Amino acid sequence: MAPVAAFLLSVLSAPGARETLFASAPAPSPSPCPDAVFDQLTVAEQLTIEGMMAPMGVSFEAWGKCTNENCSTIAKIALKKPPKSEVLAYFAGGPKPKRIATFWWLQARLRIAQILEVEMPIGPNSMPTVVRTVPWENRPFVYWDQYHRAQRNALVEPLLPLMDPIVNSLIPSPSMLASLDAANETWSPKASVSGGATSVPGSTTKIRQYLGRIDIRAGHGANYFKEGPVTFVMEFDWDTEELVIKDISWCPGAGNPIFNSVAEVLAANASGTLKMCTVDTVWYGDTKAWMEPEPPFVEAAIPPQIYYPEGPRFSVSGRTVSWMGWDFHTDIHAIEGIHISNLRFKGERIAYEMYAADFTAVYSGASTRKDIFYSDGGCAYSAPCPSPPPLTGYAVGSYVIPGNLNNDKMAEFWGAKVSESSLGAMHTHSVSYKIDLDIAGLENSFMTKKPGYKSSQYVAAADNSFYMKATKITSEGFWDNDGDSEWTPPEACLSSDASTKFIVYSPTQKNYKGNKRGYKMSVPGSPPVLYPEGDPYLHIQNFTKCDIGITKYSPDDLTPAGQASSGLRQMVVFGNLYPEPAAPGTDISHFFNGESLEEVDIVLYAHSTKMHWVVAEDVPVPSTMGKELAFEPYNYFDYNQLKNLPTNQYVYPCAECKRGGRTTEEGEGGVIPTCTP
Questions:
Q1: Is the peptide bond before 121 cis (omega within 30 degrees of 0)?
Q2: DSSP string of 604-632?
Q3: pLDDT in tens, 78-88
Q4: Are strands 72-80 and 373-375 parallel, antiparallel or unpaired?
């Protein structure tokens, strides 16, 4: 998902005609094979939806779609997943499922937000159907829907001249000057008003609270910042549509009070009582936090290269990839990111669907982002996100006064010093995965196996022996939603450790040796959930309670993303954090409703969380966060299939071709087709 966000950043920074937005990276043509049922909406299809909605007064401007009471815009355009039963029937020769697009229509003048659906392709008589209507204050998160932004800048910018002494003190490094010279730019640092990430604890049904800051921007484009010494709170009133700036922290640690308004800061400055501070002038003017190599290492930068000694061992047909006996459909869902669908080995499906439902991050400690909850799904296909992506990004944190004796102690708690005037911000990286496995069919069961040591009547040589204890998980159990201080996990909400094996298996299908066919799943263990019951951060990411959750597939539970509602789950995503208790961005609680898990179509929800304590090596870019989920056969085959895999996916037409090589006359031959149209 991160590359998609980065691409959208470059697109939206230079608004242009809608038809040209994706010209540099056109979507592949739809698959000619049955797997095309999984193809996500193309750019061309999305443009036809916009064309259908344009006569209704919907705005499609790159910026300014939703900045006042005339807002009328659509968002979160995505393919509505067809029911699994219809897809499998289609694979068996039945009718092709309808291709349905779903999206939100935000109408500020009427103060309502609606989920709409329309059958594709769009024709002259196409009209969307209203699926659900919600009050305006409960509309989903959309990045460009931020009335407060224009008001924020106008209200806070009177403070920027007070930052001139800090800005003027910055010292450009030789690498900074060389970089600017290469771009025909000059050294022009400035202070800038930014921020807008949502504060969960401070918001209510009437007021949405955001966190803002004044940061320092010096080179490397308008969107690159380093921590400034000012933070503040913005409160936006849904009813009056007015913004209030309050709780202004100016040079924290210098001895200033928390100011209740911009006017109070200006008055303190006029009276000479406003205490100022400094920053790390060398670091803020340097390029060490940039990705570009610095002299003398510039020559070490080598572009990525791909080399196939014996030719590629994969082929691509439409959006289906084949490799060494495997094939799967892959595409990018507009909200949920990369999807793997219909994963098969030698024609037998092992997984119907796998994807990351959400990435979340919660910031803590002395951070300027304290009290921020971030959901990656809320930013997908919208615009640049309000905080760094949760799996990577660049190190940001909180301002500290250079040389303060408390800095080292705070760094022990929340993150190493990034510079003399900024600390890293400790935060979480959490990911929720949905995995729909079909092991030798749809009738599956689940068990755990854990090593033990005890006496056994089956062992004659010793009184005791190692053994593997199997425990069947036979019921989902019920999610504890009573709201008290103690939470009891449902039976099928499990924690991971190094010794426990999670196994999905077929109770009826066996290999030729009589073993029940299965697949083993390894899920990384995560830190314990530290949030107390009732904490809003815990319940807007309730998937963190289960390293793995086992549920029965239901056609009513198409996606974990969004708010709970009657009927089909709708793709709301980071949907509305209020009214309290906060509705989850990704909610798995409603999947646990006491269903049997014996010989049913099983769907797994796995989770991984990493506590990220920032270190010096996180500059300029942290390493990828998190650990892998692994799958491996567990008596699924009769023997190890590696011995029978092909050496090459390519067919070479001439008799002179060497095994796995190329012809000298014709070059590469044709690709083995993965299916017949």
A1: yes
A2: EEEEEEEEE-B-GGGSS-PPPPS---EEE
A3: 999 999 999 99
A4: unpaired
Report residue 50's pLDDT band, with 50, 70 and 90 as the boundaries. very high
Domain 34-138 in CATH 3.10.450.40? The answer is yes
Q: How far apart are CA 468 and CA 520, in angstroms?
A: 14
CA gap 194, 290 in Å, rounded: 20
Distance (Å, rounded) from C-alpha 152 to C-alpha 81? 39
CA separation for the pair 346, 638 (Å, rounded)? 14
pLDDT at 258: 94
How many Å apart are CA 268 and CA 240, to the nearest integer? 29
Beta sheet of 422-424, edge-to-edge order:
397-399, 422-424, 417-419
Peptide bond into 620 cis (omega under 30): yes
- Which tokens sit at 362? 């919660």
Stated as kind and residue range, the H or E segment containing 174 is helix 174-182
CA dist 41 and 47 (Å) reads 10
Instruction: Assess whether pLDDT exceeds 90 at residue 653.
Output: no
Block residue for tokens 């909180």: 398
Secondary structure of residue 411 in the 3-state scheme: helix
Taken in order 542, 234, 115, 329, the sign of the CA dihedral is: negative
The better pLDDT of the pair 32, 259 is held by 259
Q: How far apart are CA 38 and CA 31, in angstroms?
A: 9
d(CA 535, CA 373): 12
577 closest CA partner among 537, 609, 529, 533: 537
390, 589 contact by CB (below 8 A): no
Q: What is the DSSP string of 50-100?
A: HHHHGGGT----SS-TBSSTT-EEEEEEEEEPPPHHHHHHHHTT-PPPP-E
Say what the pLDDT of residue 514 is.
95
Determine contact, residues 160/269, Cβ cutoff 8 Å: no
Query: Per-domain residue ranges for the chain?
Result: 34-138, 321-428
Neighbour-count burial of 648, counting CB atoms closer than 10 A to its CB (0-12 exposed, 13-18 middle, 19+ buried) = middle
Amino acid sitting at position 133: T
33 backbone dihedrals φ, ψ, rounded to 5°: -100, 170
